Amino acid sequence: MAEPKRDLHGERVENAKESGVVPARRTQPEAEERAQLAAEAQLRSQKLEALGTLAGGIAHDFNNALQAITGNNVLARRHLPADHPAQSFLAEVETASARASDLVRRILTFSRPEEQRREVLELQTVIGEALKLVRSTLPAQIVIHAELREDVPGILADATQIHQLVVNLATNASHAIGSAGGRIDVWLGTTHFDAQHDAPLDGLGSGDYAVLHFSDDGCGMTDATVLRIFDPFYTTKPVGQGTGLGLSVVHGIMKGLGGAVIVRSEVGQGSTFSLYFPTTRGKSMPPPPSREAPKAPGVERVLFVDDEEVLVVLGTHILDVLGYQSTGTSRPLEALKLFADAPESFDVVVTDLSMPGLSGFQLAQQLLDLRADLPVVMMSGYLGPEEMATARRLGVRELLLKPVGMDDLARALHRVLGPTRARAQS
Predict the structure, then answer these.
(1) Shortest CA distance to 141 belongs to which of 99, 172, 102, 184?
(2) What does the alpha-carbon distance between residue 120 and residue 109 come to, in Å, rounded to a whole number?
(3) pLDDT tens-digit profile of 88-133?
């Protein structure tokens, strides 16, 4: 019989429940308790799925409103002199809008793996950088001790996600430690799972994994709290001192990366969060994404489609500012007719996803049936795994999450119009 796998502290690693949570030192439950725990795990999973669906619908409408606010704010700042008194007020609008956009994205993160521009990262480097930033935000009486091994294989991730993980775990540890002060221990190493000999850990398959242990000597948690720790909006903090989203974001990011997070805690003995990242060892990886700045546009013609008229006005104005020739409509059927009448009159189509009468996917399909080489850029306030898969299947070139900034749109257009520009200049 295989030796049971143990963690950094020598404790046995139990099978993770569906939520990715393992309570500290839980005794083996009887059949009835085991069935009850399985039912509770299934209920939590269904609740997360339902909340994700609800969040997706809310995000679409809310991000449309944010798109109008942020876009018009950018245009207003561009039309005013840099020393105009209103610039400071508009800067505050920009800051508040960014905070609102970040909140929506955090709400969505727990419910679906967000499409990121991932690249091969050295965890020890990214985590070290994140800890330096976190150090300045924590009380001076909290000591951080980090041991990050240098031989950890790379992982495929977005550096911003790793920063989010470290910030949220450090913030949670700081709240658990409290004002009296304490210690946070961070350890990074590796492990290997063999599906034939090792007990499965939250559904992880065989292979090499980077392991990040994040421990604190704070107040600890009861088993009941541990079982709910990743539920969105669940928090033990007083009103006004937390949203309950931090650890939900951690769970969502790890799920999206194909990893897992395990929690061990005991009242009065602190907590340990163990994060398992699939490594790139033995895998062929795609080249890192291009970070080339957008070039000045040429004479490309853009058809802009959104069911909200205010966003059509804003979108065409931004395209004009960027130097494109734009045509906009809030009616997707009208957009289809405009294109069908003259398929070569447009170099690219930028369209919203959720529209009445004809969805962005349906519009893209019919446009591509008319001209297979047409670049299509799609925007949405919510992009789940199913939407991403459908977009790839249809041949949509770019997916942008609202609110879409001017620079983001410019870069997307440059990426999809590169070949077009090359032909025009030849």
Answers:
(1) 184
(2) 21
(3) 888 888 888 777 776 666 666 544 544 455 678 889 998 988 888 7
pLDDT tens digits for range 326-342: 999 999 999 999 999 99
> How many Å apart are CA 317 and CA 403, to the nearest integer?
16
Cβ distance 248 to 231 under 8 Å? yes
> Which of 86-95, 134-143, 308-317: highest mean pLDDT?
308-317
**Is residue 246 pLDDT above 90, yes or no?**
no
Beta bridge partners of 264: 272
User: What is the Cα 160 distance to its own chain's centre?
Assistant: 9
